[in-house]
Design a protein that fits this description.
The complex is a heterodimer of chains A (428) and B (373). Chain A has 428 residues and is an alpha/beta fold. Chain A has 18 helices and twelve strands. In chain B, the strands form three sheets. A six-stranded parallel sheet of chain B has the order 3-2-1-4-5-6, sandwiched between helices. A three-stranded antiparallel sheet of chain B has the order 7-8-9, covered by helices on one side. Chain B has a two-stranded antiparallel ribbon with strand order 10-11. Classes of the chains: A alpha/beta (428), B alpha/beta (373). The interface between A and B is large, with 164 and 154 residues.
Chain lengths: 428, 373
Amino acid sequence: MSAGPLSDIRVLEFTTAWAGPFAGRLLAYLGAEVIKVEAPSHPDSWRGSRTGGAPFYYPELDPGAEPQNRTVLFNSQNIDKYSIALDLKSPGSDDVMRDLIGEADVIFANFTPGVLDRLGVGFSAASRINPRIIVVEMPAFGPGGPMSRHQGMGKTMEPATGMTSLMGYGDDKPVLTGPALMDPIGGLNAVAAIVTALEWRQRTGSGCAVQVPQVEAATHWIGEYVLEQVDTGRTWHPDGNHAPGFAPHDAFRCRGDDEWIVIAVADDRQWQALCAVMGRPELAARYATAADRTERQQELADVIGAWTANHDRIELAERLQQAGVPAAPVLGGADIAASPVMWRSGMIAELDHALVGRRSYSTAAFRLDRTPGGCHRAAPRFGEHNDVILRDLLGYDDTRIARLRESGAIADRPTADNDSPRESLPSQ
Amino acid sequence: MRSSSPDTDNRPLAGLLVVDLTSSVAGQYTGRLLAMYGAVVVLVEPPDGTATRRMPPLDPAGGDSYLFRHLNQGKRSVVVDRAVEQTLLADLLDRADVVLRDQGDALPVELADTVVDCDLGDFPPDTGYAAWQGTELIHQALSGVMNATGVAERQPIYGVGHRASYATGTTAYITVLAALHERRRSGLGQRVHATVFESVAAMGQNLVSQFSYNATAETRARYPGYLAMLRCRDEWIVLFAIRNWPGLCQVFGLDELVRDPRFATQAGRLANWPEVTDLLRNKASRMSSDDVVAACQANRISAEKVSGLGELATSQQWRVRSMLHEVTSGDGVRSEVALHRLFHIDGADFGVPSASPALGADQVSLAISGRDR
């Protein structure tokens, strides 16, 4: 087990769903000790319901006796964390929280703005306890604007960035990214903010408050279109998979049910190579220039699609790449879970969990030769590390821990459901 | 909109020298982030300029592309013909804290052991894709995101722009700063790496784990949640109605549904969500998007308009939040619009300090500062 570069950093995580937990998982991969703090009456929403939700979130489609500790949603985003379940309204819990803050470097949350303050762990309260604490919040929008209080979720934040208006089939209807991509974008940007704030603390000697407005931060990922819009008053109009600088640039149906290959031709050489693999050298001359190909993309798509329809997407992509044509199969979950490249590159880890057994999880993309970090432990059960944290980190004795358990300040299982988004759908 | 250059001593990464040898969107975005938070970043270009100067979207007036501007604002530029003369590059590398380079790019000198040496590429070496050519379309196809984007009866949609590369640039930025953090403990730099393939794969929600749990996976067929994209009288909106069913009914004038047994439970609403969407769609077509969004948000239902960039750039939200500011070139002659902040650290200055550099704009000053050391 190799220590990661942040192995001297302790993080208190107050998060729910995807963006925040994803950020915590990345910090843990980099070696930080991440303690996830959940309220018994308000657990992470991705733990789902106490009675179980949609079957496809559970091992073998079975929620089992403890669905909130068995759901793949929670278990995929909370790898390598410690869990403490603390009811901040119960006697003794404020002492625990104060002691935790005293031992921490970073607090971060993805709740609606103001929740951390109401919990008593916002920057002004936390910095009185620990002047070196960094407190990071991840609101959908920053303070001050008319949208500052908006409820943001991955799927609704994307259209607010402007991204969705740039995606579509070319008709009037925009297309949203399938997975709620704004969540991992928000998580990545939050981790970027945290490592930057650690540098800032090194310069100042003091902690700081940090805001990562998720919509604003994600707008940088389409920054070139923003600059074009401001400078010229216009920008890209969505047109399926077409993209400036490439032709053909599309997905083409292959043999099988909903199986596709993508091909991205950037220059004449790649086009000639594609025509050679197709066994259609005459096309190289017929659509000789980028301008020809761009102007007649639909015509080209018909020709190429008729050819790809008889081929296996994976074999064909391999042949095209070998010939110098950028191409790839459109992969789904089953393909990716079995991908030799995913396994070989360390993007999949197998971890043992007491209630779900040994399962595969995607990891993180940080690659450091000397201090690599990594994934080591499955996600924690709710409150799994209550005693370890109180005894080993905070130095509480057994009597004090028993008292906290008796008062309800700490709990070993959730006392309520949360608003799980996905119940009772048939498995796919 | 115009702002003066931030005080470079009051920025989190002030004092760091970064040599950016990259030619990719991912690599140059890493450099932009480092410049945005205070590092001095020197973009080293070939005599005809880095390729991103000519990559779309292009300036109709013939200037550098908007992609180049966005990726390289705040940097300095020197030209090095590496086949001929590498003295300036060797000098820069000798002074660097961080080096950014393309995967496989050999350096002319050995770096000091305190340097964080970051290479960026499309695919991890020693894997089956090592020799493949990657583009945004290729990476989105391999990531699983594309397979789930679009409608079931049509081809999958890859998205827009270079989002996979921005993910990689952010990943590399985090990796570099984490290595610098560790350098304080050990006194040592290290080699670090980022690839587009791995960076995008890391963002997959639970593709691998869900398949491991029960051999199922998400596709374009149907999003398994309370999601609706609705055409209002004027614009499209997206809503995600995870909570407050009565409030949702009220917003759309469908109060009778509150007591409809089909929608009495969360499970019932989800199972019958296509029917709900049809009803909402019918009502929304006669309502204004602003009214729907405001009413939903007042009921704590997440909803937003599908905003175009023209609308956003002139919006009150962007104005109040100072999303855009104007930056000038080092010689004060040229100005450009820049996106202001990615995140805010209280007490620290941030933002790109200058416009994207003209080719070789800092050739003389950096050569002189190297000689004067």
